[in-house]
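ARCHIVE CARD
Drawer: 12
Card no.: 0347
Subject: one protein chain, sequence and derived structure
Cross-reference: see card 0346
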Amino acid sequence: MHNADPAQPLIEPAAVPGARVAFHRPWLGAAETRAVARTLRSGALQGDGPIGQAVEQELARRLGRREAVLTTSATAALDAVLAALSPEVGEVILPAFAFPSTAALLVARGFCPVFADIEPVTLGLDPEQVTACLSLRTRAIIHVDYGGWGGAIEEVAALAQQHGVPLIEDAAHALGATHQGRPLGVWGRAACLSFHETKLITCGEGGALLTDDAAMAEAARRYREYGTDRAAYRRGTAKGYAWQGSGSSLLLAEPLAALLQIQLARLDEAIARCRRISRAYREALKPWDGGAVQLSPPSRSGTESSGHTFYMLLADAAQADALITAAAQEGIALRRHFPALNRAPFAVAQGLSARLPVTESVAARLVRLPVYPGLTCEEQERVIACVLGFLGAAHA
């Protein structure tokens, strides 16, 4: 057992033969319980308290950005970014291989999502496809750091700069990852993080935006707290507070910030564990890579994933379904990932269903294997044996 807090071991149950291998299990321990309990006893439960502010400072320090603003989710962080940017309504370029909330938020704010296709290896935006989508109506580009890989983000960032539009980095999978020697989360005007239950570190629900733009951060703080300048008042830079503009209620409560603070202290160990798990999958499945299946891209020179995701691309959708079914029969949970948003019912109804062959192929064939810090060696061995058995039978 690996203990980030030697006095209080993590909740890390031993594998029970025949027990279900969960697709994800939060990596929590007694330290999180103590931290939340202290906060509850203090009676200071609202957001933007001293713990939340300390978490923001640590996030900014880790990524080398000047400002971090905690929110209730990554979607809320994107909402605050858009509110701070206040761009004219127009088009926003993004991948269709993404969580639906991003596109849904754009529509709710009056923007038109323009879906660009992705690269077949890293599953990030294809710069050539982004170029084809750029127009005079483009207001922003959103790059998804899928699985904690950067893809061609440096080229996408150059395109954004060349055309004078902000790049917003969806770094929900990427905390702790680096690309070309720089952290993911620093390549755009702003980045959005997620602390959802399924991420490497979590507070159940939560997010943050990061930026080097102090004015953007201050605007985001106003927006997340009802459109008021209460944050400035609490920090002593305003004598009182008043309604300053449009806003919402996006503060992360102090007990959740306390939980996140402990999780953030475990981040390096969580990443190391998930990278080891991904390497073990790759080593075991390497004989099949490039033939019957395509495995998650390996780490390359100057690029290191956060270890958030390990996936396989099967021959077709039928084989992907068959693998998931076969694993379920052995008590092992495997999962798909994003559906192709350009083929979603709403996109079709709104005329947004552009043909994106790589996205559609990937969405149909991708299967994710369990990767999380508390996955035991025994559980991973069961997953590997199941997958190898399936591939051997399917291609006998």
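Annotation on reverse: The longest strand covers residues 138-144. The radius of gyration is 21 Å.
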